Amino acid sequence: MRRYNTYSICLIFALSISLIIIGTQYVDNTLYFKSSEHWKSIKVIIKVEDGKDTYVQEIPIKLFHSVSEAATNKEDIYTITNTNQSHGSALINNASILTHKETHLATDIENILDKARSDIRQQLSNFNLSCSGAHSLEDLVMESGGHPIRTLVISSWRSGSTFLGDLVNSIPSNYYHYEPLLMYGTKQLRRPTDATEALSIVRRMFKCNFEGLEEYFEFESKDLSLFSHSTRLWEYCKNEKSNDLCFNGDFISRICKLFPFQSMKLVRLRLSLVDEILNDNELNVRVILLMRDPRGLMQSRRHRRFCELSSDCWEPSLVCADMISDYVAARNIMQRYPGRLLVVRFEDLALKPDITTQKILDFMRVDGRKAFDEFLESHTNMEVAGVHSTFKVTRNIPFKWKYTLDYNYVNDLQIACKEAMRLWGYKMVYNETHMMSNEFNPVEDYTISK
């Protein structure tokens, strides 16, 4: 009998505990659901009030579930009111599902954008915008519905493109898209089928649309030294604790739209493929093609590790075939898009900087003489170590090949590049004495026949 009483007491105790557990699960817990299957069938909808705008938005249930579990964290703020589960859904009015960190980030971004707007106005307070066909700054700012002046520099490795790109970027309030195709490595994109994605990146960046460019940001994040050229972005995205904003597509899209001038440099895309960019009337891009004597080009590329790994970089026949292709493409573009292409030889830029840079400014339609003069003064009168440095005595660079290359190598190079050299106005050398003579000027006039 005692045994049965003991069993009865244990049974009653167990049932009591079960009832307590069940009760606590359903009482005062309006966001409890019995199983994961119930969670899958439930829609969570929030009413969002954003200034004057009010709209309804559905939240993925997994996100909401994790939010409800994390609501006990004192560092997070969640306001949940007016819940209603009668039809298997929860209506949350005036919900704020933002952490302190996210709130501060949003505030920081707005402050940065305000500062950028103020800086740009100050930098251009005495700038002659009429050269760019604008009556006011807003005419050139995308945020205000304007159309910025866009300039695309096309060249190849070791052609002086870094120097030219930084020169153009010296213009006040210019946003520089520095080498957005770096992730393609040491490769030349020559055929349309190879360049579909690359051209899409170029168009999107010129339109300040950086959303969905995760692969680009992942590559950029591996080398912060790249921002030494994209100076305007780096000025506003760098931070002592984190540089996350430098890879935030939404932030970069917004700050890009504040600048009246945009420039981009590409050394992996041949000129023949730029037709698609020129044909986009919304962009209205102007293109500068930078060429260089193949002998100086190859001298600069020799012993560069990045170049040794790719025939596109070290094989003279491929390099000079690209030069011929660029000549043909330049002729076609000048016919189809008059006034949209300027050809500059590196030798002319180095030996006649004042005349050549004025041609560039006139072509770009920008009042940047003062900025260009200051850049040339600081970048052509001193020598600083480093393969990619633009602080060099550029007058000594163009013909360095005459005194450093072996004549037999030069002769073989000239055989492979004879037609390209003829088209672009580079004279042949016939022996070592001729090559090293101070009287020999390798550059002559050229024309792009129509």
List the helices and strands and how they pair.
Layout (H helix, E strand, L loop, with lengths): L1 H25 L9 H5 L2 E8 L2 E7 L1 H10 L5 E4 L9 E5 L2 E4 H24 L25 E6 L6 H9 L4 E5 L17 H11 L7 H7 L10 H7 L11 H8 L4 E6 L8 H4 L7 E6 L2 H8 L3 H4 L2 H4 L1 H21 L4 E5 H6 L1 H12 L4 H11 L21 H4 L2 H18 L7 H5 L14
Parallel strand pairs: 1-4, 6-8, 6-9, 7-8, 9-10
Antiparallel strand pairs: 1-2, 3-5
What do you see in this structure?
The protein has two domains: 29-99, no CATH class; 127-208 and 257-436, Rossmann fold, CATH 3.40.50. 45% of the residues lie in helices and 12% in strands. It has 20 helices and ten strands. α14 runs parallel beside α19 (407-424). Mean pLDDT is 83; it is low at 24-45, 59-95 and 382-391.
Main pleated sheet? 5 strands, parallel
CATH architecture annotation of the largest domain: 3-Layer(aba) Sandwich
Helix-strand sequence: HHEEHEEEHEHEHHHHEHEHHHHEHHHHHH
Whole-number count of domains = 2
Outline? globular
Tally of contiguous helical segments: 20
Strand order across the biggest sheet?
Answer: 7-8-6-9-10
User: Which value, in Å, is the CA radius of gyration?
Assistant: 31 Å
Average of the residue pLDDT scores: 83
Task: Name the CATH superfamily assignment of the largest domain.
Answer: P-loop containing nucleotide triphosphate hydrolases
Query: Gap between N and C termini, in Å?
Result: 116 Å
Summing up helix and strand content along with how strands pair, one would put the structural category as alpha/beta
Question: Within the CATH hierarchy, at the fold level, what is the topology of the largest domain?
Answer: Rossmann fold
